[in-house]
Amino acid sequence: MSGSSVSERLQSSVHQALSEEGAKSRTIRVFFSSPFGGMEGERETLTRKYFPEIASYCQSFGYDFIPIDLRWGITKEAADNAMVMWLCLKEIDNSDIFVGFYGMRYGWHDATGSDKLLDQNFEKAKDDYGWIMQYRHRSVTELEMRHGHLNKIGTIPSCFFFRNESFDTQKVIDLEVSGQKGEIRKYRAENDKANDLRRQLIREVKQKDSKQHLISMKDYDTPEDGATKIHFALMTYLKTILPNTVEPANTFKDIFLQRHVGFFASKLMKPFIGGNDIFTQLTLHAKGQAVIPVRFDSISVEDSMTSASYNSSEASSISYEEVGQKPIVLISGPGGGKSSVMCHWMKGFIRDHQNMIVFYHFVGTSAGSTNARIILMRMIMELYEGLEVQGQTEGFESAPDPEKLATKPIKDITKELGLVLKQIASHKRSALILLDGLHTLSLGKQGRPLSWLPKSYPKGVNLIVSISSKNPKLRRELVGKRRWHPLEIKSLDNDCQEEIINQVLTPRGKALSPYQTEMILSNKQCNNPLYLNIVLEEMVMFGDFFKLDAHMQDCLQAVNTKELFTKVIKRLSNDAQLILKRDDVLKQVMIGIHVSNNGLSEKEIRHNIKLDQREWSHIFFSLEKYLTANGVILNFAYSDLNEAVRDLYLPDPEDFSYAAKDLAESFLEILDPIVNPSEDKPIDKGRVARVASELPYLLSRTLTIPGQKEKLVNILSNIYIFNSLYTPSTKYDLIGYWNELGVSFEKKGKTMFDAYRESLEAFKQTNTATSGYSIVEICDDLASFLIDSGFYQFSEEFYIQAKEIQEEISSKDPNPDETLADILNKLGNFYVDTEQFEKAFEAQSRALCLREELANNAPDKETRDKYLSGMAMCYNGIAILCMRQKDYDKAVQNFETTLSYHKQALGEVHQLVADTYNNIGSCYYTHKQYVEAINAFNDALKVYNQVYSDSLPPDIGGVMTNLAMCYRYQNDFTQAENLYKEALRIREAALGRDHPDIAHTLMAIGLFEIQRENYSIAEEHFRRALEMFEAAYGKSHLLVAQAYDNLCRSLVLSQKVADAYNCFQSSMAIYKKRKVFNRSSIGLMYTFVEYHQSKDDFTTAYELLLDCIRHEERRDYHFVSIEAVYNKLEESNRPPRDATTTVDKGLELFPNSEALLIAKLDVCLQNKDVAIIAELLKSHNFPSTSYFLVFNACVQASMLEQGLSMLEQLIACDTSDQSKVRALKELSIGYHSLKQFDKASEYLELLCKLDPDNYTAKFNLGRLQILPPYNDFSRASILIEEALKIATNANDEDSINEFKVCLENLTALND
């Protein structure tokens, strides 16, 4: 809370967005000032009796109470180092409340003019506090009271307490009587002059213009009385101020602006040299006049390639009438001066362009300042305020409500930014936006760099950002992809270096010799401003003039900033050890910060290594310039410093592990009293969140140490830690911590389940009604998390617990229960996923009924929309159930209802809307309507892109997989391949490589590789997917069977048929066990029928064929095959025939199957009876080809007459003339061969009538007229002559010759 008065700070409420960043924990620092001697009683009572109560009260409002009392326990060593005065005054600067109390003793002062140590204290403090030289002979206590109150009355809340002199007088008497003469000096003025100075100081404090600014000023009788009055005054003041901190005042802008103004001012106080060229370019750019010639960074094809269906769209989605110039990207290495350039240029620019709206944000200067959401909110509110300040409100839309804005998705906040920018431009206003330190932004696991920041800006709005050259990813994004203008900060030249040297040293009364100056100028590392400033600070801090050259040479030997920091750390460590008389205390502080996840607070550091306030003050002030404060969390300001700490103190990974273990133990100690409070009151979730942000991370870095895995499991399963980490933004971190265990997926799932179940039972025993935790919500979250982690089989127990507890609660209230409906909806979804369809429908139906009743009785539209959204979730669950049961038409119908309700309740852009589009696309895909599916999937991606503008969640990877499959079936392999790769990358980044959702993508890619004939690659994908599914769902899940099937296909195509058959057997066992045999692949079954037939293994082939004909997708050829295979079985091995496996059953199912007809014919032919075949041909309306097929079979079986009867049956049917002609021909020939000439003649007569130009038939009919019983030579001659005439017309010479010979013979016979 340092930097402004506690009243200003505590009366400002932090916006809800801040609390989401974990900034609930703030500090109240109270400085206690008094002479050390004689005031021990007050301090003892305060410390033991009152401080715990004050700390507890402050903590209830989210503040840490930190009492500062440097006199307590101060050592002779610290005094001998002449740091007492400087430390005291510095701590007052860093405090929020000042408390002074006095007895008779005036305090440490130079009464004789011979106190050299005090002289040294004045000398060391005067550089920072020059005013103290006016009070050269006053006590240190008086200097504290002047600095804390009299010199700046009203700036810091203060209170004073003066002990009555009668107590000290009596104390002196008592000590004399008891013989403790050495203690008497503590209760007696040092001398008369000291007594006068003390009384004069008290009168000055008590004067009217001072008193009106005091919290309290009292006299007291005894130390106990004094401590009681101090406690009462502090509590009274805190009770007046602290409750105001929870009021929803509109202080969002002020809270952040205060931090940023402070950072701005701190940069302006430091020397800045050069930069004129950069300043000129920045000014021209800010005025819209810049044309900066730059060479854009090269960008690889991979960097520039964007998925055809998933583009990183313009963040604001706002179109401008006229687009302005490209933003500037200010770039330098660590310590290269980016922030200083920004601040010093901005100072002059703002002064000269007061009509321009200017927004600036320094990332990392305060809690929440690294969060994109908060940056956008600040930007929007301050740009709107800039318009209002300039009186430009007419025609402008008003600023959005910050409270409502904070609850919106980030894509909506980005749109609000686009709107205010558009308003600025449309009204011909100008605005400048400066964002410093974008490389320090917080990005989650799925973070997309700066996707929330618009790529283009309207004319009149100009943007300047700064990044570190050590972040190539951001540089590629901004300079490579967006083509923003890079502006490199040049290294310092010698003139600039000399000017910096003078500006740093001259005010401190120091100067370098020419030799020393040349040492710096000749060192190329001093071209870096940070490096140079560190060297100069080291010179200032170095006290031995005669060794200065050697120390400077040692510093300048550092080849980079990291090595220089290493030297600084060593010097600081030696100083701390000398002054504090504790080994490695600074080392422990720096190691703690280094191994932490996000940095540490003062209180956490002190708790970790057991520092008292005096020790911490020295450490903090020695490190202050190298630290950043994100709220109360301290971290290293420079990455090079962080690396230096690692290389110096933790070069071995094992060292890091043990350091993390020590810090983890400290956080465990912090956690215990938080979750086990001594009183029945709400648990401070903000403090739990702070521990949760560090403890699991630390334990995950210690797993090489025996016993640490168990501790990690205990912490991850701790219900309070789980509740804090299971949020949309951190649940993947939680999954990641479990993955760190390094065990198999199956074992991890069992470990998670057992640990959470045990922890939940313990939680039930200790949870109270006032704790702020709901057991129903915890059970619900545990079940959802296990599903998120891929362990469906373990989640049901927690869902059932949540349902049963909520049903008991609901039974006491006649009104429908939304919480119960939500649990039933989730439980129904779970049952669908685990193939328990009846239970799924029952749960969804109950949930839908409850929500319909709630919607019908809703008091207003907002409430009704909420319940409509709940109804949509139920319809969605029912739709997915229909889809899994292959009732796709009904599924689409329910999805459309879902979509309608979601849009009505949530708007067009919401994750659930995107989910529904994805589900609709999946239905179309299943129907092979790929164009419609692609449209639906693209709609889903469009909405996802708007919802998740700052991240890439696994949902997007799932839609990309679906979209890729559509393109695969359209043979667009290029599109499909790009989408598959991106989908896999997104999902692996979000979920880890072993999550079962990854397996779905791998299955799709494997099928894609089969289509491309990359069978070995497909096999690898399928094997990996199989392992994931088995580990996640157990070995009997349908997804496992599907993975086996796909692996089987790849092995068959790779000619590894024996291995493929093993996979096939595994999948078949699952389908049969789960009683979903019809989901098995009948195509694979028949593949292995043929395989075993080729191996003469007819027994196995027969068994497989039995499965085929029992399958709902059976075909006629399966019945044909089983008949053939059965007949090949040895008679001794032939099983009894089941009627359902026979050809007759096949014909019943496939009555028009020629294959089955032939199979039946074979049996009939063996029995020499084809009557049943004739019946089949007639009753089943077989085509004429089937008749001829049966006829030919009969002929070959020497059953010509039965065959001829089939043809006779054919010509009796209403068949085509062509078929009748063929049948009559075969009948005539057949009966002729049987010497049944009358029938042959009959059919030839019919043939000639049907085909009068058929000269062969006429000829044959003529010949038959010669034979008995006709003996009609005349008619024979006529028919043959007709045949000859037709043959002559047809130029059939062979027939002509044959017919003439026959006529000649016939004439001879007649003669």
Structural commentary:
This protein is mostly helical and 1311 residues long. The chain has a five-stranded parallel sheet, sandwiched between helices. A five-stranded parallel sheet has the order 7-8-9-6-10, sandwiched between helices. Helix 3 links the parallel strand 1 (26-33) and strand 2. Helix 38 runs antiparallel to helix 39 (861-884). The radius of gyration is 46 Å and the shape is elongated. Residues 1-25, 72-76, 245-252 and 293-317 have low confidence and may be disordered.
Radius of gyration: 46 Å
Q: What's the count of strands?
A: 13
Shape: elongated
Query: Could you tell me the mean pLDDT?
Result: 83
Give the low-confidence spans.
Answer: 1-25, 72-76, 245-252, 293-317
Oligomeric state: single chain
Amino-to-carboxy terminus distance: 144 Å
Strand order of the largest sheet: 2-1-3-4-5
